[in-house]
């Protein structure tokens, strides 16, 4: 995961929720940064309190793609000389065949499927 904004939340022994915003590259990094940040902002536990659970909310920037469907379908049908890409294409072909055979597929779908 790339650097993402994360909200780390936890409840103390008094059932009070505390949350902080951190930036991290992984879930575990977010948890540790969050716990450190909570101490930095003044959250204190009583001496024998053990933190049992934290909640992490990960926010990633939206990504927008505009894809030419006929070109995509042509690319999916072509073989690849790279094994990893060939594996991905095979998975996509399975999805494509499921879409063709599904009784609940949208009516517009067959217009985009080129043989």
Query: On the 0-100 scale, what is the average pLDDT?
Result: 82
Number of domains: 2
- Give the helix proportion (percent range): 40-55%
Derived from helix and strand composition plus strand pairing, the structural class reads alpha+beta
Low-confidence parts, pLDDT < 50 over ≥5 residues? 105-110
Report the C-alpha radius of gyration, rounded: 23 Å
Strands of the largest sheet, in order across it?
A: 2-1-3
In whole angstroms, the N-to-C terminal distance is 37 Å
What kind of oligomer do you see? single chain
Q: Give the amount of beta strand, in percent.
A: 15-25%
Most strands sheet: 3 strands, antiparallel
How many β-strand stretches?
A: 3
- Order of SSEs: EEHEHHH
Shape, please? elongated
Question: How many H/I helical runs?
Answer: 4
Folded structure, characterized:
The protein is α+β, with helices and mostly antiparallel strands and 115 residues long. The protein folds into 2 domains: 4-59; 69-112, no CATH class. The chain contains 4 helices and 3 strands, in the order E-E-H-E-H-H-H. It has helices at residues 27-40, 69-77, 83-101, 109-112, and strands at 4-11, 17-24, 55-59. A 3-stranded antiparallel β-sheet has the order 2-1-3, with helices on one face. The chain starts with a strand and ends with a helix.
Topology:
Elements: E1 4-11, E2 17-24, H1 27-40, E3 55-59, H2 69-77, H3 83-101, H4 109-112
